[in-house]
Amino acid sequence: MAADKELKNTGNHFLTQEQEALLDLYLQRLDTIFEEMKASEKVQVEIETQHLKKILHR
């Protein structure tokens, strides 16, 4: 195996450095998506709350 493809022991799994880097990027992207979903949910709850308040005050 080439030097840049050297295996890295991560617990019971063996990944190349390239695979490890790709996994890190993937996990970072998932974290970003999750945070965006949480923020979106907060906005949706606020919109629904305001809508319900408006209905109740009629």
What report would you give on this structure?
It is built from one helix and two strands. By secondary structure, it is α+β, with helices and mostly antiparallel strands. The chain has a two-stranded antiparallel ribbon with strand order 1-2. A hairpin with a 2-residue loop joins strand 1 (7-10) and strand 2 (13-16). The chain is rod-shaped.
Q: Got a strand count?
A: 2
Mean residue pLDDT: 87
Order of helices and strands: EEH
Low-confidence stretches: none
Total count of helical runs of at least 4 residues: 1
Helical fraction: 55-70%
Tell me the β content: 5-15%
Major beta sheet summary: 2 strands, antiparallel
Strand order of the largest sheet: 1-2
- Cα end-to-end separation: 73 Å
Structural class designation: alpha+beta
Q: C-alpha Rg, in Å?
A: 22 Å
Form type:
rod-shaped
Summarize the helices and strands and which ones pair or pack:
Layout lengths: L6 E4 L2 E4 H40 L2
Antiparallel strand pairs: 1-2
Notable characteristics:
58 residues, 14% strand, rod-shaped
Brief synopsis:
The protein is an alpha+beta fold. It contains one helix and two strands, in the order ββα.
